[in-house]
Structures
1.
Amino acid sequence: MGGLRRYAPPLVWLLALLLTALYLPRLEPFFTWLEPDRQTVIYPRQSFLALLIEHALIVAVAGTIAIALGVGAAVGVTRRAGEEFLPLVSQLASIGQTFPPVAVLALAVPALGYGAEAVIVALVLYGLLPIVRNSLAGLQAVDRGVLESARGIGLSPWQTLVWVELPIAAPAIMGGIRTSVTINIATAAIGSTIGANTLGNPIISGIVNGNIAFTLQGAVLIGLLAITVDSAFSRIA
Amino acid sequence: MIELDNVSKSFGSEKAVDGISLDVPAGSLCVLVGTSGCGKSTTLRMINRLIEHSDGMIRIDGHPIRDFNEVTLRRRIGYAIQNTGLFPHWSVARNIGVVPRLLKWDKAQIRERVESLMALLGLAVEEFADKYPHQLSGGQAQRVGVARALAADPDILLMDEPFGALDPITRSGLQAELLRIQSRIRKTIVFVTHDMDEALRLADQIVVMQGGRIIQQGTPTQILAHPADGFVETLVGGRDRGLKRASLTAVGDMMEPIEQADDPPAISVARTDSMRLAVSLMLWHGVSRLSVRDDNGDTVGILPLRRLVDDVG
């Protein structure tokens, strides 16, 4: 029961998210009141559930790649063999953070064409940075005495990493992953402009057609998705 | 037994350790003492290959240490350092059991070993086994550090200023504890400190280092009686060293037999107490004679003031 109570908030948010995705069209009277002059007030082209699933999938794939690359890079440059690259990687991580996501998308399209692949590449690049930065900070903060004694009592380098460094750095690393994924849930919406199907579709369509109802529907679902995921992270991290 | 034969270590052009030779016989406690940067820690860390020596030969039980895989070598050598290096995310019991776990002992065996070590170090199992390092006092954490170093029952123990960060009372308690444990388990111990009093108290053999070289080695009494040069004399306390030597001599070795007619003095010391304590009691109480008692509290001898100035040592 303790476990259930612990995970209750993210589960409640998840339930709210799914119910909203399924039953948003039932709120048609509300949206008609909002946009009285329109015939269509519920985004018609795809179901919200389909958009939600594709949106979440794009973020999940990008997140998994970003975690593997980001944590991997941070671990690599904190090993003796990789320490030459430490200044380079930590500078790239800070500079990259100043790039607006739209610019990253604009650069990804010529390379990969329109569609989900380009969005995933852009999200990986953008999501990498908080993960690298936090993982580096976490790994570098591990006490020297702890590392020295780990070596001294006979842990192999791999055991030192897996038993000692990663667990001690885990809260910092999880913090970076949380920031990265949450940002990318929002950023993925921009993917609609380059042909990926995300919850950005109703938002963009609403902006283009001047239909606040569409925009509101996309925004509410993205907000709920972000809150659900963030709430889940706050329970594990 | 550990042998260092003309061992040097260079960092770039700088020689941190310069041609030192040293034998530590099995079961003895050797203290490397000197000021910061004298090479004592480097010397210690060369023995378990945390630092590789540049020249010369280091042997353990006759085998050159480079014949061993470095990780295997370290698992056979206990290692305790100043700030304990305990893993902050592991409980006390798990910290102590880490080397047996590396050596793939079975779980019951590890638990048994951890509990017996906690008993040896005076840590109550029910109270401490599940605590985390940040919940311990400095002295308790250091006990756990020593227990961890002893966990796989290594023949050799390397200790790098293990009591350096503790307050004087805790440090003195742990020194006494180390001597008590050593009298039971007889490990070959190399102990690094900058504190000459600690060295004098613990060592079978003291090695004084300066500038990467050994200035003098010998028993505590030898070092006190015949410091090799002005530097060693300063380390052993200059004109204060009479008291240091007194602290190494037990009252029991200096007392006179009690005579039946004698009325034993009211102030008493234990026969295992140091002469330094005896002098202090005489100064404090303004008396020139003390009774000496054994463990049962029976008076077994008399210590008169003149014994202090007869042939001490």
2.
Amino acid sequence: MRILEGKGVTKHFGGLAAISNVDFYVDRGEIVGLIGPNGAGKTTLFNLISAALPLNSGVIRFKGEKITGLKPHRICRAGVARTFQSVKVFGNMPVLGNVLLGSLFGTSIGMSSADATKEAIESLEFAGLSAVSATLAKDLTLANQKRLEVAKALATKPELLLLDELVAGLNATETAQAMELVTKIRDRGITILVIEHVMKAIMSICDRIMVLHHGEKIAEGTPKEITNNQTVIEVYLGK
Amino acid sequence: MDLTTVTSKRLLFLGLLFLVFILLAFLPLYGSVYTVILVTAIFMYIILTVSWVIFSGPTGYISLAPAAFFGVGIYTSAVLGKVLPLPIVICIGALASFCLALLVGALTLRLRGIYFSIFTLGLVLLIQQLLLWYEVRITHTRGRFVIVVNNTTIYYVMLGILVILLLAAYLIRRSKYGLALQSIGEDEEAAAHIGINVTVLKTIIFAVSAIFTGAAGAIMATRWTYIDPYIAFNPLFSFLPVLMAIFGGMGQFYGPIIGAAIFAYLEEVLLTRFPYYYMLIFGIILVVAILYLPDGLVGLVQKWRKGGSARQHADT
């Protein structure tokens, strides 16, 4: 069943087509990888889905309903949460406060503050941050800040989670832990669309991968198909 | 610190607060007229500062609109004071400021940083000049007389507005909306993507903070007896709250209150003792405070307390 679907999605920045006429879909329960060279338009696509940017044309549907034109907070409450490539945690707030905002404002039902606190504590536990819940977010390590980004997003009780470069800047051990976290999230029944540069990381966890290049979708398939795809190899390694 | 010391400290604090309130509530009975007028002025500055901090403190949107809301209150009082009883005039002044802030907020809160500040300052000057044009061209009389109210009444009204404001500011700060405002100040984009309706929240809090500024203007006008657009929409009332909040320090709830109180008292003392050098001395104090007290008086107190507790630990 399609949880997210885009048709003819297009975004121009001046004369530059950052995303041109891209069709895509994500099925419920999948982990879908989004890869491509720098400037391929991956983050732009995330920004279009989460309404950080308006589309020039095309339509995006979530659970069959059109979400293009909605404000970011409405998209979040509808069940689409995202993280940011450059971590955007609320640095001068304790870790718990960061996550609490998600459960207080981001859920579709609207919780009482007691329930929201419970939900926030649970999200922190899930992301392995219980020990630092009183620490200011800016004092966390990068790995933990990235975990906090995930915990914030999870606290909004999403059905679809958009992860933008979860492991960029992390070492091998931290990368492995982050990937483990991603599969744990999927096991909770949350669908995941993930942007990643670290091929090893993405190949191991994704059910399906889409490749963007110069704003166009050039390939799509299982990790194995993608690694053997001639166009993809040319784009990444040159002819 | 264990729970009993925390509770007893809290009780002590509440007791002190209550004592201060009682002392202030009966001030007109035992204080001189001069004291009552001085404390009224201090109240006014605290109201301007705290209501500015409600919105601008956590969000970091430096609003220079207080003078506009204050002026709207003043003019409401000047126009309606002769025909309506005082409580209603004050309510209308507050409501008019609220509506203006709602409109301005909805139009301009998408502007960020310096653009927002300049626009809000422009608003003050725009209203001032429009009114001036109206008075000169249409009514052919510049300025108005305001119905005088006795000092004690002004004092109590000001105290009432202040108490309600402090309660409101405290409740907003402690609520989930206080947390959301802080997140807007930290990263507005992230705040929107975590489900906060940033536009509506900003606009409403901006408008709520204007209620108190407008109410203070409405009652303060009655003490000035004569007002014109330059007096009512004086940009100084936009800058002073910012300075006082910085002077006091915005890290703690009491910072802006103490900042405004000391600032207002200082102004009065300097003005009466050194009428010719007052602005000069005032300016020097401000420069020194901003250079050496980046976190305001609150920062100084906290540094001192931290230093004190560190010494205690070193002793044991």
3.
Amino acid sequence: MNANTENARPKGRRFQLDPKFEAYKGVWVFVEQERGEVHPVSWELLGEGRKLADQLGAVLGAVILGGGEEEALADALEKACEEAIGFGADLVYLATGEVLADYRNETYTSALTDLVNTHKPEILMLGATTLGRDLAGSVATTLGTGLTADCTELDIDPETRSLMATRPTFGGSLLCTIQTLNYRPQMATVRPRVMAMPAVDPARSGEIVRSGFGMSEDDVLAKVLEFIPDEAREGAQLPYAEIIVSGGLGMGKPENFKLLFDLAGVLGAEVGASRPVIQAGWVEADRQVGQTGKTVRPRLYIAAGISGAVQHRVGMEGSDVIVAINSDPQAPIFDFATYGIVGDAVQIVPALTEAFRKRLAVTRAAS
Amino acid sequence: MHIVVCIKQVPDSAQIRIHPVTNTIMRQGVPAIVNPYDMFALEEALRVRDRLGGGKVTVLTMGPPTAEAALRKSLSLGADDAVLLTDRLFAGSDTLATSFALSQAILRLSEQEPVDIVFTGKQTIDGDTAQVGPGIATRLNLNLLTYVAKIEKVDPEAGSIRVHRRAEGGVQVLEAPMPCLITLLEGVNTLRHGSMPDMFRAARTQITRWGREDAGIDDPTRIGLKGSPTVVTKVFAPKPTAEPATQLEVAGRSPADVAADLVERLFDDSGDLERLLLRQAG
């Protein structure tokens, strides 16, 4: 926590970048890959990074770390480099080494810190995933620089040319803008789905800067014994779901969540929930949408019995279409939803399930 | 086995209100609680100690003198010792300065008895950064094990620990030497109830307070506002950008009619949505 959240910028304090940091130029995005698969948040960040780099008149770099014996993995890393360029990178720094095959804090912190110290970017962004948060905290501490977590808006301060990182604070009830004025690089993490996915341009060209990471397995203390992949398509899928049906305390009781699962079944949707529902233990914690849960931006978000407190709103207001069902006509969710239905969600949801089922059956029969 | 658990006292964010005119936080009457994520860490630390049949759990917090309440709570649950890191000079610390202060205090604790494991919660509910744990580990050169869901084995003889940690798309089973720092995932254990003797002990104990110098911090520019590279330059309320919802007529209509109306409108507005639904549900 930034304990200084409430302190405004001290008046009269001058901000002068130390000359040793003047060489720091360019915007970097850490492209997160595991077993050859790139996390989409990395592409979202490249889209945002492109805008920041253009504002600064600077170069956009992508950093990819990886390794391993398999040829398929090497191909995947090459493909990731090409894709990073397609998504807007001018330069891709690819560092490979046997110890980078699996993510480990020790090796990745060392590899990324080395690259930063060699090439000196002014901004470094990472996805606020489990991997990204683990890595960002260590890298920022090693470099002794500022890091702002879970940013929802990034901009350049025209006066100081420094990064203005805005994030929700106090459960989303306030926003604060945080700057790292005297240190470089300025680091920030952004949660998946907070920034829009940019268009890819396969014709873009860029340069790949390759380097080897020399650490050997004998030097690494933490050993990966096993990786157990998630089997079920669970709540973890929420951030990238196209349709989400979410429930709040207005669903009345835990058993009524079945109504939401029924609707989700007809729509091919994922089921989400508000924080009070999670706290009451009605559904698994990884279904939580909101500031302390997941950020989502589906094409359609149906909020049933959710009041729309700021804490929930910040996690889902990026949805294309929001349908709100709530018995309280004054519920804040009606202030920003696309469509509102004042009524008991327990009555409306099953009616919706039926209506969608019928309509889709008709469309299907006609096509 | 010496285990240190770092906890934080936070305002109960569910009860925070914002002053409508000044946009400042109205703290009056907002109760302070122990960051809920930290309680999972404390419980896990106590379990490790109990499983090994001995050892010491020290709880550490940085905060104002009133944060003592969080430490007493921990003692009542069975923690062996508690230290409150409190000094006006710590005020305004960001995550980098906070991890510095805590790591210095842990070094001091380690002089009393070498520390094997440091536990923290996954993140706090007021800052949500998840940065302080990794920061402490990096400063003290501890093996960092974040988002731990399960501690499979602690081997004090071999000085190693085996954990399951949540990674993207799966669970990583890691073995690392101690000392290490573990940030614990929420919901992986159930907090115990305190015993009567522990409750009495918690109420009576004189809590150790350390100021900057007690914690062995010589350089005051590394803590508080001076030691914080990040600066909050603006605090503001989210602007109400969106337009209010188009309300569907509900008076005198059945849920089925309202639902059919909604589906009609959704599909009329966006043919894409209909195609998407057909594909998704397909």
